[in-house]
Description:
By secondary structure, the protein is mainly alpha-helical. The protein has helices at 2-16, 19-37, 47-56, 67-86, 115-123, 128-140, 144-148, 186-199, 217-226, 238-251, 253-260, 265-271, 283-287, and strands spanning 155-156, 167-170, 180-183, 207-208, 211-212. Helix 2 crosses helix 4, helix 5 (115-123) packs antiparallel against helix 6 (128-140) and helix 11 (253-260) crosses helix 12. The N and C termini lie far apart (57 Å).
Amino acid sequence: LQEFFDAVWSKTRSAQLSNDGWRREQQLWKSYLLPQLGDQRVGTLNARDFDRFIRDASGAKGQLLSGNTRRLIRAAYRSALDWCQWEEAIPEVHRFRRLKGTTKKVLPSPEPLTATEIQAVVDATKTPEERAVLTVAFHLGLRPSEVCGIVWSDVVLTKAPDHPNGSVHVRGTKTAESEARLPLTKEAQAALRRLKRLTGPEGPVFVHRSGPRKSYRSLLKRAAADAGVKRGRVFQYLTRHTAATLVSQDQGTAAAAALLRHTNPRMVEKIYDHTPAGARVDLERVFSRESED
C-alpha cells in the first residue's frame, strides 16, 4: 500500500482534489493509514484488518479518534480501493461495517431531472440573470463554483467552426486539467446574449443583488418549487448530475465524462450517472432547442 500511494495514488488523487482538499487527505494517509497498513499488499486488504485498524486508531496523544475522524479516514482509504477496482487492479472492494459515533447523515441519492422538468424549472425563473444561471448550469454540466465564476471576457457568443453557438472558457476549476473552452448550446447562447444586453460587456456574468453571485442553491430550490418539480433533495450539484445522466442516456458514459471533464468514465458512471435501464431522452430538444432572441 505504501508503494502504491507513493508511485500512483498520490499523483492521481492530487489531480482530482483541490490543493487544500489533497493536503487534508494526504495528512490522513500519512498519520493513520500508511503507518498501520502501508506494508500490506493492496490485493490482500480485507474487512477484518481494516475493522481492527479503524477501531483501534488513535491520535498523537494516544486518545481514540472521534467517529467523524474515522469516517474521513475510511473515505480516503475507500476512494483508493474504488479506483483500483475501476482500473481492474483488484477484483472487488471489501465490505465496510457501519462506524459508530459519527454524525454523518446518510443523504438520499440524487434524482436527476427529466427533459420536461428542466425546461419547467428554467421557465420558472423571474429574471434574465436567473434564467441564464440555470440554463448554463444544466446545459454545460459545470460545477457550481465554475458557473458563478464565469466572466464576460471568457464568453464568446459569435459563431466559430468548432463552436457554432459560441463558447465559454471555464476557469477556477477543481483541478487544472478541468480548465477548458466549452461549446454553448443554443438556449445557453440566447440566455447569455439577453443578459449581456442588460449588464454590459465586462465583469462577472452572474451578479446577484450587489455583487457577483456565489451560489444558486436558493434559486434552484425556488424555481423547482414554483415549477412543481419535487425531489427528495434539491441541491446545486443536481444540475451537474442531471447533465451527466442525460448525456449518458443519449451518447454513453464516455460522452458524459467528456462533458464533465473527467478522465475516468467509471467515476462518472459511479457518481454522476443515474440512468435507469433502457432509458432514452431527446437531448436535441433539451440542449439544442431553437431560441428566439
